[in-house]
# Entry
Amino acid sequence: MPHFSSENEVVLERSRYSVDRLEQLRKRFLGISELTSHPGIAIYVTGSYGRLEASPRSDLDLFLIHCDSEHERPIIASTKTRIKAELIKIPRELGFPAFSDDGEYLQVHSLKDMLLNLGGREDDSMNHFTARLLLLLESRPLLHDDSYDATMTEVIEAYFRDYHDHEKDFRPIFLVNDILRFWKTLCLNYEHKRNIPIGDQSKKNKVYLKNLKLKFSRLLTCFSTVIPLIAAPNISPQEIGALIRLPPLKRLEHFAEADTDRQRLYERVLNEYVWFMGQVSRSDAENWIEDKAYREDAFERAKHFGSNVYQLLQLGIKNTDNLRYLVI
# Structure
């Protein structure tokens, strides 16, 4: 698992913790014979572990994609059941928080179906949209790295189907549009979660925290990719692959390093994000955000964070017409 460098010690410590915990998982997953006998299954983590910023309280988000190679044996239903059982049991034994909904989303997705249904009605209903975008935006391989790399390459190529006819002036609008669709879907999903019984303070506190995560980590995940993509005069599939293999903060750091105004804004983004990581990993996070004064301060910080990210976007598209491709 790769580390990434940064001058901020909190970010470095979170990266080290994430890498160590993922390595523990990797070693245990190597003992699952149903997985090791199917090397075409790419297993990857998303969320705070995928961003390399996890804490002991972080959830574990796992996804599985089968590459559907002609050399791969089909995965029968009983094998999938045994794989799912082990993927639930091992993290529990290692002290990770329990999966939500009893591991309902631990399904083996077909890469062939995912690409075939890209943009179609089944894209959302089969959870392909989420699995694909999280693969691109905040993932780390846990097992079968070759299959993970092959999956990533095929997904990127699907967004770059017209690239080879337009290498000098290609704009990755298809990919940018899908990332923006994902961002807006996250925003809509949050509004759905607000449909909670009046007076249930515990659920309200959880929703407050989800809103804070939406305004910080979810926003960072999406726009740390959108900004470099839309700012580049053109970009190749290989450059996209290199970009998205960096953690989100590192993507913005690279984007900012060639310009002093960008660097200044990036430092603000980094400082606010480090504050956010500390607050949402508190053992008393729900009680903390229940306090109105703390909550108002938190969302004021989120407002400044979003404004600084937007200003980075503005600097990226300065003296270009690229904003037009984000709007129309």
Summary: Residues 1-6 have pLDDT under 50 and may be disordered. The first strand starts at residue 41 and ends at 46. The radius of gyration is 20 Å.
